[in-house]
UniProtKB/TrEMBL annotation:
Cofactor: thiamine diphosphate
Listed name of the protein: Transketolase 1
GO molecular function term, any single one: transketolase activity
Organism: [Ruminococcus] torques
Family the entry assigns: Belongs to the transketolase family.
Keyword Transferase: yes
Length: 278
């Protein structure tokens, strides 16, 4: 995909996120929207995955360590064709396979159930070790929240990843600077994030995580790294793409009402139309 196509796809994924959350009347828009460009790039450019064969042995693996931003992953999987987009409106409904957190047993394209913060990266490290033991050439990607990296388990997993020289692992930190209770600097600052991962012997790349050119360059660079895992620290805007949600901590974990949904979708429609004129 070229950059314009990626931008159009990201805009469609944002529509799916907002639609799913509005229907659920619950969920996490802020961190789903901040990571939309990363989800888009991974599934439409970077990863070797096949919606027709979600469990193929040589597929690249993705673990959503910040599992509460499932609406972002679900909308991306639907856009890619893993399941019908129409099903997004069943998010968090009784009997729906689209639960509030990813479920590998029921959702096509989900490689790991996640939600308890800190645990996803450990699973990803295990997958990457398995790949090395099997001499497989698949790569493993995991997306963490910047609040999530306050969890000690993240650093235990990182220590092992570097010790095992897992150059088939890419850890992405969605650094939108906000967690459920406020700015990460006020709750329990993990800064400097890049220096911490460097201390754990990761190859570290700092980018604007809402900019496709920088995302593209980062993942291409990661593929050239040998003998150590890569950490991409992606500076993003929480709630990106919906004006009244951007950088507002209150939108970490609440759904838009009918009026807010209408405004958000109008904004995204206009953004889509503007991209079509480019």
């Amino acid at each position: 995909m070229n950059k314009l196509e990626l931008m159009k796809t990201a805009n469609e994924i944002r529509k799916g996120i907002v639609t799913a959350l509005h229907s659920a009347k619950a969920g996490h828009p802020g961190g789903s929207l901040s990571a939309t460009e990363i989800f888009t790039y991974l599934y439409f450019e970077e990863m070797n995955v096949d919606p027709k064969d979600p469990k193929k042995a040589d597929r690249d693996r993705f673990v959503l360590s910040k599992g509460h931003t499932a609406p972002g992953l679900y909308s991306t999987l639907a856009q890619k064709g893993f399941f019908p987009k129409e099903d997004l409106v069943t998010l968090r409904h009784t009997g729906s396979y689209l639960q509030g957190h990813p479920d590998m047993k029921h959702i096509p394209g989900v490689d790991m159930s996640s939600g308890s913060l800190g645990q996803g990266i450990s699973a990803a490290v295990g997958m990457a070790i398995a790949g090395k033991l099997d001499n497989a050439d698949y790569r493993v990607y995991t997306l963490l929240g910047d609040g999530e990296i306050q969890e000690g388990q993240v650093w235990e997993a990182s220590m092992l990843a570097a010790h095992r020289k897992l150059d088939n692992l890419v850890v992405i930190v969605d650094n939108n600077n906000l967690q459920i209770d406020g700015a990460i600097t006020e709750v329990n600052s993990p800064y400097p994030i890049d220096k911490k991962f460097e201390a754990f012997n990761f190859h570290v790349i700092n980018i604007d995580g809402n900019d496709f050119d920088q995302i593209d360059a980062a993942f291409k660079e990661a593929k050239t790294v040998k003998g150590q895992p890569t950490a991409i620290i992606a500076k993003t805007v929480k709630g990106k793409g919906v004006s009244f949600m951007e950088n507002q901590v209150g939108w970490h974990g609440k759904a838009p009402n009918d009026e807010e949904y209408k405004i958000a979708m109008e904004e995204l429609e206009k953004a889509g139309e503007a991209l079509c004129q480019k």
